[in-house]
Amino acid sequence: MIDPTVVERRLAAAYDAFHRARSRTTITHDLCAQAMGDDYPADVAPSSSCDLPLLQLMTERLALQPYQHLVDLGCGTGGTGLWLARATGAAVRGVDISPEAIRLARARLPDFAPAFGEFQVGSVRYTGLSYGRAHGLVCVDALGPAGDRGAALHEGAGSCSPGPVP
Question: What is the model's pTM?
Fold first, then answer.
């Protein structure tokens, strides 16, 4: 990974603290489940706006086939990408700025069997992914803190192979 900026180091530290704190309690899970009702994807355990209708829409729009590759940019603890991988048979590569989130995502892999995934520390500025290898990309609520959203989208899109959009 390219040396992180001061802002990226601060952001990583803040997200590390967030994910450590969240892993010790169910309060966020409980509140989101109560607010979203039947649309709450309990196994994803989102800390964002990701609900079942959004996951179903992403599944339809991505139209991934088994063994294709999906990038989950700003993956957090991996729930969204792992859910999509399990639903489609694709392999997910998650990238997040938080080493703690990546540790938790890796620990969640068995919960989503037979989904296959790999998770690595990176940023929206520099993912560290190979260019042109992925068949789809998702990024749920991770562009907000990106300083240059256009550059972040360019970096993420660079990991995808060219082809028609369904």
Answer: 0.89
